[in-house]
């Protein structure tokens, strides 16, 4: 092998080794960053769930911007802490909110010379009037963390795409004939004298009561359920097979018995 070829080969080997080393260092750095941000983010939300304002104050920057798709923009640490104290930590509340991240959805990305981003999905649970805790909503989140003067603080918080949690997930939808579905449609008189209107939309029923519009999926020939609310709708027939009323249940409890007109 000539001297020139040997020199070129050594240069290639050196560059390859340097690239691999830099890649490994970068991966290690990213893993460290992910662990750091994940740790501080989890501590912040532990403070949120326990209404520990000292923890929240420690972790939010003075120029915090909190974007919420339902409540709008909250600017500044002071405003955020006041809202948290009033809505989450007040002894006057008969309910408690708990936020939980969906661990499998979490992604963390570095921001050069700043900090990092953590994003994913989170769940909100509510405990009300000493009743068992229940899932109240789901949403997406994005938090921007900054490392400044040796301290990690959240500068931007986004909580968006809030939705009601899926309901009646234990129930299985079946197919019914249009003829059977059509026998259930019509107008029903509620106990408050309000008219409930039921129409068919393909293989489902749509139930309209005032401003409420619910889609009902068949579980049996007489029982339907909502996927958006903890509601079921049971159609009662008389001895001749004619529908006489609809019984509406919420979380298993009867909330309405509407008579068919």
UniProtKB/TrEMBL annotation:
Signal peptide extent: 1-25
Domain DUF4440: 42-154
This protein's record includes keyword Cell inner membrane: no
Keywords: Signal
Protein name as annotated: Nuclear transport factor 2 family protein
Upper taxonomic lineage: Bacteria, Pseudomonadati, Bacteroidota, Flavobacteriia, Flavobacteriales
């Amino acid at each position: 092998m000539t001297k020139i070829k040997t020199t070129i080969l050594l240069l290639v080997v050196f560059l390859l080794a340097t690239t691999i080393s830099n890649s490994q260092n970068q991966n290690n750095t990213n893993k460290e960053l992910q662990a750091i941000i994940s740790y501080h983010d989890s501590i912040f939300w532990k403070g949120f769930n326990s209404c520990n304002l000292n923890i929240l104050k420690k972790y939010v920057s003075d120029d915090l911007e909190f974007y919420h798709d339902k409540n709008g923009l909250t600017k500044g640490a002071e405003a955020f802490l006041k809202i948290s104290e009033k809505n989450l930590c007040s002894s006057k509340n008969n309910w408690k909110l708990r936020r939980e991240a969906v661990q499998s959805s979490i992604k963390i990305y570095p921001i050069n010379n700043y900090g990092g981003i953590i994003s994913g999905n989170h769940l909100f649970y509510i405990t009300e009037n000493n009743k068992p805790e229940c899932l109240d909503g789901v949403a997406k989140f994005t938090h921007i963390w900054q490392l400044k003067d040796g301290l990690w603080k959240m500068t931007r918080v986004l909580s968006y795409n809030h939705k009601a949690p899926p309901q009646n997930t234990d129930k299985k939808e079946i197919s019914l004939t249009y003829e059977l579905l059509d026998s259930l449609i019509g107008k029903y008189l509620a106990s408050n004298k309000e008219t409930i209107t039921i129409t068919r939309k393909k293989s489902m029923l749509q139930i309209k009561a005032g401003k409420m519009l619910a889609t009902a999926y068949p579980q049996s020939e007489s029982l339907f359920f909502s996927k958006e609310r903890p509601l079921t709708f049971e159609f009662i027939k008389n001895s001749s097979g004619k529908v006489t009323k609809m019984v509406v249940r919420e979380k298993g409890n009867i909330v309405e018995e509407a008579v068919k007109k």
